[in-house]
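Intended use. Records such as the DUF47 family protein entry shown here are meant for training and evaluating sequence-to-structure methods. They are not intended to support clinical decisions.
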Amino acid sequence: MRFRLTPRETSFYDMFAASADNIVTGSKLLMELLGADASARAEIAERMRAAEHAGDDATHAIFHQLNSSFITPFDREDIYSLASSLDDIMDFMEEAVDLVVLYNVEELPKGVEQQIEVLARAAELTAEAMPHLRTMDNLTEYWIEVNRLENQADQIHRKLLAHLFNGKFDAMEVLKLKQIVDVLEEAADAFEHVANTVETIAVKES
């Protein structure tokens, strides 16, 4: 860790932790969606929408703090990138839930539960990692594991696409389901972007 002579604004750490905790909430709502019947999905979507709004508020708070702070704990562009990528995760998860409701999807294809399990694990790891930004300790295993999970998500996504295009689904249903699984894949990519940003920050601060 580089020695600094100037004080740093430390509230960023708490805000990043709050943002990541909110993502865990979103991942739990995704898990809840899997076991819900069609009548319960609209209510889950409402709670996911509220979580997404809370994520937006957390992101705006970070940006406001960034714009009003003379000294930041690490590079401004990295703070912006980290906050934006965390926000992207919530946006993608909320979009996936919203699409399930808007498209009146009766049954999600087999394999979506694996996608969501990967996202839930990545959310837990991200929430556990954010407090370590204060010291930059014990973060290597985090970004390695999230990158591994993203590779796993890629494999699941490819299998899902192969399943959707096997000729057993109606063409319109394929379009709907593909959009949902694609958005879940984007959420996995966003988790990797967060991990890569954390790795960049850690390297710069070492």
